[in-house]
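Table S2 (text version). Query chain:
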Amino acid sequence: MGKIPITVAEGDGIGPEIMAATLHILKEAGADLEIHQVEIGEKVYLRGQKGGIEPSTWDTIRNTKAFLKAPITTPQGGGFKSLNVTVRTTLGLYANIRPCVAYNPFVKSKHPGMDVVIIRENEEDLYTGIEYRQSPETVHALKIITRPGSERIVRYAFEYARAHQRKKVTCFTKDNILKMSDGLFHKVFDEIGAEYPDIEKEHWIVDIGAAKLADTPSAFDVVVLPNLYGDILSDVAAQIAGSVGLAGSANIGQFGAMFEAIHGSAPRRAGQNLANPSGLLLAAVMMLVHVGLPEQASLIHNAWLRTVEDGIHTYDIYTESVSKAKVGTKEFADAVITRLGQKPQQLKSVHYGAAKQISHSPKKFAVKRNPKELVGVDVYVDSIETVDELKQKIAEALPADIQLTSIFNRGVKVWPEGLAETSCGDVWRCRFTAKTPEQIVKLLGRLVEGNIDVLHTENLYKFDGVPGYPNAEI
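Corresponding structure-token output:
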């Protein structure tokens, strides 16, 4: 079979130390890997690469079976992009999988027996990073949820549950407020869930769902979420299980995979032989299964469990009443290596088989492409005038065939029938009737001529008679 090529990046802060420990364990366990080392992160950012990765590095990653990445540091300011987001979106790694497991009593947990898998959509939502400063006082961020993206991650969650003998999939959204974006994610969950009668399914509003997850994680099995909620709650779940420092994650797509610890680069701990390599090591275990080395994955995972069980702990999980020895990064790795071939006595041992094949080309629900009906336009303007002053200014500029129907500020209707108590910012959403693009162009020209500071527009459409916009009075 030959050596399996993987790309490795040691990252920043504690990254080089925990990567060295992890690679040492992989080697001693007999994982036949061909390591292709690349540099990413802080040094690359500071050389002028805004994404933290050199263009040539992409070819290395694409030509290997997997990418094992230690945490990196993103410099503050200067318009630097998140490297994690860049890699995930550029390579199409749409599914983030984070097992959150309790190792009580050897690692303190309020929830002994916790075993929840968080499956997070990885490419959309607010993580597209599309933000605009609209005025001196206001910035806008664009939340993107698509049907194809939602279908793909939801189907992955159900396929993962079926492949790993999980009994239930739960969806978290905030569709009581975000009725269209999160509403679409929930709708897709219901549609696809109907194809899996063997799996229990449920939906929670994310705020009460998060409270339930923190209080009673045994109520959950597999949880699928949009990107932002998934990022937050996967860290919460890992921490209440025992420690964020113990959690690894996989980022999976049709054409590649990246494996990483979920914690940061902790620069204040760097170079002190203190950091716990467990998160990266367990990510590497997931990687070994993915690239076809399940025996080595089982060997390492069981040795790690035995090490934890024997009370050999780094500072972050050390507890005098439970731990037997406080060790550094290198010593922890040595302890795992010493226990290769052993199994835990109290914690549940693991046995990995061949990687479960999960389709990345889900069946798509047919979406009717009926003509959409243009009914109006929302024009966002920058003004420090009162709503009455702004309304009068617009009225003086308005073409005869277009009507101003309402004005909103920060999502609240302030005209007509607004209240004096409503607090307003300096960006106003002014809604107009319009039936043709030509009317909108004429309207914008008149507003500019009237010294109204137009920021951007959103056309208002109906789809099969259903408004595709909020506050649908028009």
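Notes on Table S2: The two ends are 65 Å apart (CA to CA). The chain has 13 helices and 20 strands.
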